[in-house]
Amino acid sequence: MDNTFSTYKIDDRSLIAFIKREIHNLALQLGFTPHRAAETDIIVAELTSNLIKYANGGELLYRAHLENGYNEIEIYCLDKGVGFENVAKIMNDGYSSSNTLGHGLGSIKRLSNDFQIYSMKNWGCVQYVRICEKPNLELPALQTGISHAAIAVNYPGEKICGDGYHIKYSTRGFQIFVGDGLGHGESAGEAIQAAIKIFKQSAETEPSAILRDIHSRVKKTRGLVGTIASVDYKSETWNICGIGNINTRIYNGLENKTYTPYNGIIGHNIPRTLNSTIVPYKRHQIIVMHSDGLRTRWNLNDMTSILKQSSSIIASALFKENVRGTDDATILVGKIN
Q1: Overall average pLDDT of the 316-335 stretch
Q2: Neighbours of 269 (CB within 10 A)
């Protein structure tokens, strides 16, 4: 199942019926009952109409996703409207910021399996919705390690994403790979998918060795840039190594540090010497990795209480503010729990 999100700019009410029909058909293809698909319609209608009514438009991202053996639809709704301060108040059924009767966001919360919202005054709003095929499905409790969210979108007009990511888990820890095939479109997609396949299969454990493995085996492709961030539970360390412009940043509370990758192109030319950066691995850290489809001059500390939010909200807030719209774009956010 494709990891990328379909995305629509919503600035006209005429688009709403089209998007509702598209997501409704997707729900039925995934095996949702007609009743569950109709509930999905209500959620999509509420999200999209609110964008028009209260934010003068925005963006809707959605994808089908397989999680823990169940099909689900994930939706992000992003806007740069006036925003609001009291999220708890507007989540109540019957509340409407235009003082008209309406079930508002309370109906989305009731019909979805997970609904999260974040807003600041004069900043706008991001919303995240998960709709599982089973309405009463209990989401599993987070285990030790990392809870993550990722948003990947195609270059506008392309059907294939040239960015990609994968997380590989083992008893000793986990490894995150984020990469970007050169350019965009089919050739970039072939390069990144080849790299992810090698990353999954590689017997190497050191990020630098895995990157060399990928480099030696993707030489017939267009090439890519990529970073691997590996965690070892026993030594309680991050081991980070990257080639090319994947931005990697780790937050420890309010403090953060960006880890600089080596210059080069995986599959074409990489440095003879590759050394990893070793960083302490601690609870409550936040790691952010993204391709150059997003601007790099951002700071989570500029957004009120964002560090307390879920990975999904952090990823969507950064995406909303920093996506360039001129390339494939991928952002992965992990919170250490």
Answers
A1: 96
A2: 11
